[in-house]
Design a protein that fits this description.
The structure is a homodimer of 224-residue chains.
Chain A: H1 17-33, H2 40-47, H3 53-58, H4 61-90, H5 98-106, H6 121-132, H7 136-160, H8 166-194, H9 200-216
The structure holds a DNA duplex (30 and 30 nucleotides).
Chain lengths: 224, 224
DNA sequence: CACTCATTCAAACGTATGTTTGAAACGGAC
DNA sequence: GTCCGTTTCAAACATACGTTTGAATGAGTG
């Protein structure tokens, strides 16, 4: 069995060739076929490695999938953090606008791939998969990839919305998350089924308009 | 194989005993374990019927699930329609407010069961399941259960929001749907994992506040 | 009773799955 | 060259699954 941490040895090579090839193929295949439809046989065949490699390197299929998901999330959240950096710099000492914050949260999710389909649609699908079938171990393993961004967003939105209570801000941020989760699930459907190209700019404008209004809503409804 | 429609015979007994017992058990089991985790062996064992009964009565597992989902959706949408009737009656000749329309859309989804958990959480899970794994035949079979309500909501929201274009109204209604879908997925999690009771009134107030602001948003952002 | 249809049943089918095993191949250390 | 831990490999394992089959049952009809 050996430790999860590879033996000291040549630590420079970030990962064994097989291990990184497996996780790369897993990400791509999950992207195109959906997590439920990918077997470890599919992955190992495509990656040109032995069937047993996945259990050897990751322990189980489930943990491989969790690592693939964590990788996507990290990529997305790194972009978001960078956009928040820019927004904060641009705002000088003041807090960035709700719209700027929303853009930092939303835009990275709209990136398109070479087919002009949503690049992270598979990430949304994997998330759905874990939401539907919650596994405490995996949730725990994923949490650190979400927390820093969430804390920062909470702080920034609270600053931009001083009239909204902190718990409300958190709750409303949850709705933005919901919208984006759903959005990506369906961006995938729309793209694959209809061959429609996605109009990122228009989507972004609509999403920011809807969400910023929601974030700013007066607590007791009746805005007009 | 015989037709799907049972032979004429005693049409008074709405469904054969086995058939209705199967669909009832299926609904309940999907509710508690999640659609992915329920096998036809689980269902038939629990219902006390033969393993082959599902394929005999429904043709396949997938079609049984679709029927169970359609049943839930019909129940929900009937309530929504009734609430819309009331809202329209109350508004007299004028169009009901955005808030009243949202309540009709949202409240039926918040009904709790005897454990004060969300009663339709399983419906959301089943929906998620079909979204993740779209099957044209099943989607087609589900459509009629959604369309009448959707058309009516579109018409009413457009009347209540004359300054928002029809395609925008439709798009925004989609976001409300997204929020509710996600909301129910997580209401289930919260309820089961934490044993927390759900505060329907508070949830409704928050949801309506967020969504009504979003529905009313000025198209080009920057509300203040 | 005899006929017929829908329904139920136990059993088997065929297959796809994630995982384990035990031996072989590799590669650096001494 | 030999040892030793790591990695790869082909093969088997152990089920779990949805579905099919063909005979048995049962009720309604003539």
């Amino acid at each position: 069995m050996s430790d999860n941490t590879k033996a000291a040895a040549s630590a420079t090579a970030a990962e064994s060739d097989t291990k990184s090839r497996i996780i790369g193929v897993a990400e791509r295949m999950i992207a195109t076929k959906g997590a439920e439809q990918v077997s470890i046989r599919d992955i190992t065949r495509e990656a040109g490695v032995n069937l047993a490699a996945i259990n050897y390197h990751f322990g189980s299929k489930e943990r491989l999938f969790a690592e693939a998901l964590a990788r996507s999330i990290t990529a997305i959240n790194t972009t978001r953090m960078a956009m928040l950096d820019k927004a904060e710099a641009k705002a000088g000492g003041r807090s960035p606008s709700v719209e700027a914050l929303l853009e930092a949260f939303i835009l990275p999710l709209l990136h398109t791939d070479e087919n002009e389909c949503n690049r992270y649609a598979h990430t949304a699908k994997m998330l759905s998969r874990f939401f539907l079938n919650p596994d405490e171990e995996i949730m725990h393993m994923l949490r650190p990839h979400f927390m820093p961004l969430k804390e920062r967003l909470l702080r920034l939105f609270s600053a931009a919305l001083p009239e909204v209570g902190k718990t409300d801000v958190e709750w409303r941020l949850g709705q933005v998350f919901a919208i984006m989760h759903h959005h990506m699930l369906f961006a995938d459907l729309r793209c694959k089924d209809l061959g429609k190209k996605l109009n990122v700019k228009k989507e972004l404008r609509r999403l920011v308009a809807f969400c910023s209004a929601g974030m700013r809503a007066t607590p007791d409804g009746e805005a007009h």
